[in-house]
Amino acid sequence: MIPIAKPLLDEEEIAAVSNVLRSGIIAEGQRVADFEEAFANYIGVENAVAVNSGTAALHAALLAHGIGAGDEVITTSFSFIATANSILFTGAKPVFADIEHDTFNIDTDDIAGKITPKTKALMPVHLYGHPAEMRAIMEIAEDHNLTVIEDACQAHGAAYGNKKVGSFGTGAFSFYPTKNMTTSEGGMITTNDKEIADRARMIRSHGSRQRYLHEMIGYNFRMTDISAAIGLVQLGKLGEFTSMRQRNAGILSNGLRNIKGITVPVIRNGCNHVFHQYTIRTGGRDELVSFLNKNGIGTGIYYPVPIHKQPLYRELGYNDNLPVCEEAAGEALSLPVHPAVSKEDLNMIIETIKKGVEAID
Question: What total number of domains does the chain contain?
């Protein structure tokens, strides 16, 4: 089976972890600080705050901006549920805008109609590694005095124009094993605002900046030096990983774009797509998934049930009309694109899809 995702870890990561274990300092320490500095430099921001998951990064970023009960945050329903749940964690309300048909990202034309006096923030998701339409998003935020929290959990190194995502507003990244780089589990908040960074650091550590002196409600969101050691090695490899993902995506698109019923991913002009996922659209998705899996090709469906249709959100009273989002949920299909996929694997994927489409048709 060609897996849909595979973390690439070798002796360098093993040695880095071994060095931490031998040091005896395995909780948050110098390696976390070093990782924060390196990641901030990579994204092009003044501050980075390491936490223990991408969900914690989103949650802490919202809290650091003062988002809470009675507030509304506009985001997308076509994402992993942590995007919206992080808003619920603060006591605020997620408000869903529809998505663009081509990039699967939030439709900026639909945001304006969702803004109310309670709206305090916009949370675009750079889905699958393709940047959201940040020029329009930042203009809307400026016009309405809104905070921007970028869910960049799938978009390490993606760029809109000459700026990396996570540097427009306050960014939140995930280092889960399936992401473009990993720390096993972990996350990062990025910001140019020192006050926001300071608040995020307190939030991740029980509301404290000085041991046993607690200034606010906080959590245990700390990253360990073990995770940071892996992250430092992975960050050094991220450029190569990204190039390999982009090469693999190019091979897939060249082989698939003329197959009837298959729509390959787009890359908007001026954007750097890092292909966390390579996601096609097809009306015969479920049948094709079955055919591919029977022929040794792993697939992923991200996401078959939009957030607003999840049982939890139905119970909360959500009944949104998001037609583009709902259409995408029935057609989106992700194929292996990670660096461990060989050219032979890619050719097999292309040929198997051709056969699958013919068999289904």
Answer: 2
